[in-house]
Design goal:
The chain is of the alpha+beta class. It has 8 helices and 8 strands, in the order H-H-E-E-E-E-E-E-E-E-H-H-H-H-H-H. Helices cover about 50% and strands about 15% of the residues. The protein binds zinc ion (ZN).
C-alpha cells in the first residue's frame, strides 16, 4: 500500500509544481513506512530466509522461506558489488538475527543470532550424477583430446558400476517377482501385530476399570517393571531389630553343629522351645529364691550381729 501511494496520480488542488515531485510537495518518501529509518542508511525490506536455521535466542527451528521485515543496510563492497546486511527480529522471541550477503561464494552468511542447519554436501561423494560445469563444457567443445579422455572416463565409471546395478536389479526382482507370497507374509505380520494390540488393549481397559480411571496408558517397559518391583519391596512391612535378632538366633540354634545330625527341624525347634522354657523357669526360681532368701539372710545376719552385739554388750556389761 505504502509503495503505491507515491506513484498514484492524485494531485491535490493546492499542488505547486515548483516544489518538484508530488513526494517532495507532500514531504514524504516514495517508500513511505519502509523508509522511516532512511536517515540511518536503513531501508526496510521483506527478507526470505535462504536456508534452515536455528534461532540462538529460543533454539527454535526456522525453516527456509520464512519471511521477515528486515532492516537492510549496505556494509561494504566486493569489487563492484555492494555487500548488504539484513537484521530481523525472530518471530518467536526477542532475539535479532543478522545475515549478510557473500557475493564471492554466491551465499548468505549468518553474522549473529542464529546457527545454520548444515544441509550442504558434495553430490559426488554419494555418487550422484552431477551436471558438467560450464568450464568443462567449454573445454570439451575446444579440446578434442580432452573430450576423448572425458568420454572414456565416463565409459569406465559405467563399466565399474555395472555389476552393482545388476545386483540391485536382481534383488528387486527377487523381492517383488512373487507378489502373492510377499503380500501373504505382510498380512501374516500384520495379523500378529493386530492380535497383540487387541490383547494389550483389553488388558489396559481391564486395569483402568479396576482402578476406575479414564486416562490413556503407555506401553509397559522393562524399566517400569523394575521400578514397580523396587517400590513394592519398599512398601513391605519392615521387621524390628529385635525381631530380626530373634530370627537369627533361632536359625543359629536350629541349625545342627554336627554335619551327621539327622534331626528334623520341627523336632529340633520343639527341643529348643522346651530347653528355653526350662531355662526361664530355672531362672525364675533362682530369682525368686534370691529375692526371698536374701533379705532373710540379711535380716538374720543383722539380727545375729545385733544379738551378738547385745549379747556381747550384755556380756561386757
Ligand atoms: Zn527465536
Amino acid at each position: 500500500m505504502g509503495e503505491r501511494k507515491g506513484t498514484n496520480k492524485y494531485y491535490p488542488p493546492d499542488y505547486d509544481p515548483k516544489a518538484g515531485g508530488l513526494n517532495k510537495f507532500l514531504g514524504t518518501h516514495a517508500l513511505r513506512e519502509r523508509a522511516r529509518k532512511i536517515h540511518l542508511g536503513i531501508i526496510i525490506v521483506r527478507f526470505e530466509m535462504p536456508y534452515n536455521i536455528w534461532c540462538e535466542g529460543c533454539n527454535n527451528h526456522i525453516g527456509m522461506g520464512v519471511r521477515y521485515n528486515a532492516e537492510k543496510t549496505k556494509i561494504g563492497m566486493y569489487y563492484t558489488t555492494p555487500l548488504y546486511q539484513f537484521k530481523m527480529k525472530c518471530h518467536l522471541c526477542d532475539n535479532h538475527i543478522v545475515i549478510k550477503t557473500d557475493p564471492g561464494n554466491l551465499e548468505y552468511v549468518i553474522v549473529s543470532g542464529a546457527r545454520r542447519q548444515e544441509n550442504r554436501w558434495d553430490p559426488t561423494q554419494n555418487e550422484q550424477v552431477v551436471p558438467e560445469t560450464k568450464e568443462t563444457q567449454k573445454r570439451m567443445f575446444d579440446d578434442s583430446m580432452f573430450k576423448l579422455e572425458h568420454g572414456s572416463e565416463d565409459k569406465n565409471s559405467y563399466e565399474s558400476s555395472k555389476p552393482r546395478l545388476i545386483q540391485l536389479f536382481n534383488r528387486n526382482e527377487e523381492k517383488w517377482s512373487d507378489d502373492y507370497s510377499a503380500n501373504q507374509r505382510l498380512r501374516q505380520i500384520f495379523r500378529k501385530q493386530n492380535s497383540e494390540l487387541k490383547r494389550s488393549e483389553s488388558q489396559d481397559s481391564a486395569l483402568l476399570k479396576r482402578v476406575s480411571l479414564s486416562i490413556p496408558l503407555l506401553a509397559e517397559t522393562e524399566e517400569d517393571k523394575k521400578m514397580a518391583s523396587l517400590l513394592s519391596q519398599k512398601l513391605k512391612p519392615m521387621k524390628s531389630v529385635g525381631e530380626n535378632r530373634d530370627l537369627v538366633r533361632k536359625r543359629i540354634i536350629s541349625s545342627s553343629s554336627l554335619p551327621t545330625a539327622n534331626f528334623s527341624t520341627t523336632k529340633e525347634l520343639k527341643a529348643v522351645k522346651i530347653l528355653n522354657n526350662s531355662a526361664k523357669k530355672d531362672l525364675g526360681i533362682v530369682k525368686k529364691s534370691s529375692t526371698c532368701v536374701q533379705p532373710e539372710t540379711k535380716k538374720a545376719r543383722l539380727s545375729n550381729s545385733l544379738v551378738g552385739a547385745y549379747g556381747s554388750g550384755s556380756d561386757s556389761d
